[in-house]
Design a protein that fits this description.
This protein has three domains: 2-90, Zinc/RING finger domain, C3HC4 (zinc finger) (Herpes Virus-1), CATH 3.30.40.10; 150-277, no CATH class; 298-439, Sandwich (Jelly Rolls). The chain is 41% helix and 21% strand. The protein is built from ten helices and 18 strands. The protein is elongated, with a radius of gyration of 43 Å. Residues 1-20 form the signal peptide. GO terms for molecular function: zinc ion binding.
């Protein structure tokens, strides 16, 4: 009976438009009542009662408050609010023993009551008062948030440096592009095809460098986003001042505890990448190589006086000649060529970094480190390109600019000298090595 009466009462105190307890109820001439806001909106569209469809005259739109219904509705609303408060209070009780939750089980990481402590389920477990446990967890979380904040700062700093490197790379690319365009203009229509090929090569190198740097920046931004999200979640928990709610919120968010345990600062592991953007010899000697392709329109000038007098090593059947250049390379980009002809033995390059040919095998040597190459051609002229800034030494078949090998030695120090060595039979040498040098 009580339930039936309560249901009947709720139906009489409910607006038939919004289906909730009346708020500022008013009564129409037909006797039906509605919330003032609900009926005002309804009458603005159709001048009739939503319940019985009775017409409401214009003068009837001045609605009067139904004070009796308003009083009953307010009392019922207050009862419902009190019921919700009682339910909230019940959340503080142990669901198993209906005792107040005063303890925190350190072993199980959960709230407990006095009866829970003495029960078999928590036998041998360690307990702390809620306030003391909350203080301990709070200190732990505050330290954790500091770690996350420090990592955010580290990632932001390194991300800023990565953006600077991206900008510098774009600027360097644009400078090289401008230089290429200017040089190609001097060679007219014949060089248009080669111009497009080399510009594409530069663009590919730029895209490759940008892809690597963008991947690194994306990883940095992902780490930053994840750290900020984690910081926000933990900070929101730390804002809870009520001890019980604080611990309950922390322990019920298993994902947050898991994130704390699995958190690893990434600011120290992320590194700014800056792949080198270089066109090799095309960057500093572009016109020369293009002119070589134009049926040797430009004739190289011999510089036989660029090397010192060779020293000889006597042998029963052959003689070895070697020499260093009198000039030293200290900076910039340099290119020179050495005509090796059909000799079956020679070494060309720098003093401790050179390419050697012996018995149809090509080998590079750098500070006593020997590397066998798979190159199988037989060039008559070797082109040597030295970039002092990037410390790279490259070898080419000078007749068609086929790349043979590039030595990237971080330990290469300037100044350095050009070097060559070759073998010849006893007697007069009618085919000496010829050296041609071009500086950038």
């Amino acid at each position: 009976v009580d339930t039936r009466m309560f249901t009947l009462l709720m139906l009489n105190l409910t607006c038939s438009i919004c289906l909730t307890i009346f708020t500022d109820p008013v009564m129409l001439p037909c006797g039906h009542s509605f919330c003032r806001e609900c009926i005002s909106l309804s009458l603005s569209k159709l001048c009739q009662c939503p319940h019985c469809r009775a017409a409401v005259p214009k003068e009837g739109k001045c609605l009067l408050t139904n004070h009796i219904l308003k009083s009953l509705a307010e009392k019922e609303a207050e009862k419902l609010r009190g019921k919700h408060r009682d339910e909230e209070v019940d959340d503080r009780l142990c669901p198993e023993h209906e005792e107040k939750l005063k303890l925190f089980c350190i072993t199980d990481q959960q709230l407990a009551c006095i009866i829970c402590r003495d029960g078999e389920k928590h036998e041998g477990h360690k307990f702390k008062p809620i306030k003391e446990a909350a203080a301990s967890v709070r200190r732990e979380l505050e330290t954790f948030v500091e770690q996350v904040s420090d990592d955010i700062c580290a990632v932001e700093s390194i991300g800023s440096k990565q953006r600077e490197e991206i900008t510098k790379t774009k600027e360097k690319s644009q400078q090289l592009m401008t230089q290429i365009c200017r040089q190609f203009e001097e060679m007219h229509q014949f060089l248009r095809k080669r111009e497009d090929e080399i510009k594409k090569d530069l663009k590919d190198k730029e895209e490759e460098a940008m892809e690597k740097m963008s991947e690194t920046l994306n990883a940095m931004e992902t780490a930053l986003s994840e750290n900020r999200e984690l910081e926000g979640k933990v900070t929101s928990v730390l804002k809870i001042t009520d001890y019980e709610r604080f611990l309950k919120s922390w322990t019920e968010e298993n994902s947050m505890k898991t994130a704390k345990r699995s958190f690893k600062p990434r600011g120290g592991n992320l590194k700014v990448v800056n792949p080198p953007l270089s066109l090799g010899p095309h960057e500093s000697h572009l016109q020369f190589f293009m002119w070589q392709e134009m049926l040797q329109v430009i004739q190289p000038r011999a510089e036989d006086n660029r090397h010192s007098c060779p020293s000889y090593t006597e042998d029963t059947s052959v003689r070895y000649a070697s020499a260093y250049s009198t000039n030293q390379f200290t900076s910039g980009q340099h290119y020179w060529e050495i005509e090796v002809g059909k000799r079956d033995y020679w070494k060309v390059g720098l003093q401790k970094y050179y390419l050697s040919y012996n018995e149809q095998k090509y080998v590079t040597s750098s500070q006593n480190k020997v590397t066998n190459l798979t190159f199988t051609g037989r060039p008559q002229k070797i082109g040597i390109y030295l970039d002092c800034m990037s410390k790279e030494l490259s070898f080419y078949d000078a007749e068609n600019m086929t790349h043979i090998h590039t030595m990237r030695e971080g330990c290469l120090s300037v100044p350095v000298k050009a070097y060559f060595e070759y073998k010849f039979s006893k007697g007069a040498d009618h085919n000496p090595l010829r050296v041609c040098l071009w500086n950038s």
